[in-house]
Amino acid sequence: MKKSERLNQELLYLTDKKIFHLKELEEKFAISERTALRDITDLEQLGLAFYSETGRSGGYHITNSKLLLPIRFNTQEINAIFFALQAIKNLSETPYSNEYQKIQTKLLKNLPQKLQNQISLQKEFVHYISQPSLNEVPFLLCYLKLVWIIA
């Protein structure tokens, strides 16, 4: 696993934790103690706020309650996202149908030019054929809002 991928996975792993130990990272990611220490330094530079405490109940205590992670995708994942957005846009009518193009535009603007060109080619050469949905779910948005209220 590349270092950048490992750091991303470590950030995801630590997202819901309040405290972690060096051994956890070593075991979870099959890395040495020295690599784990370097990773902790790198995680701090990426915005993970923590302090260390020594002793029996010590460890690394994460200070911010919820991490907002910069998410990094590899090229395959980016292509999969755009492919899925294009495909889902043609599947059926949903309460979010108007949002798919906005999502594509925002994501595309944050990509390097080379990837933007690749995505444009993908959109140009891959055509989706679909028929209008026969099964409209008239109260789907109401159901979703109810779930948001309950949660």
Automatic annotation (TrEMBL):
Answer whether the UniProt record assigns the keyword DNA repair to this protein: no
**SUPFAM superfamilies associated with the record:** Winged helix' DNA-binding domain
Q: Does the keyword Transcription apply?
A: yes
Keyword list (alphabetical) reads: Transcription, Transcription regulation
Name one matching Pfam family.
HTH_11
Domain (HTH deoR-type): give its ranges: 3-58
Q: Which PROSITE patterns match?
A: HTH_DEOR_2
User: Which PANTHER family does this UniProt record tie to the protein?
Assistant: PTHR34580, SLL5097 PROTEIN
In Swiss-Prot or TrEMBL terms, this protein is called HTH deoR-type domain-containing protein
The species this protein belongs to is Lactobacillus gasseri
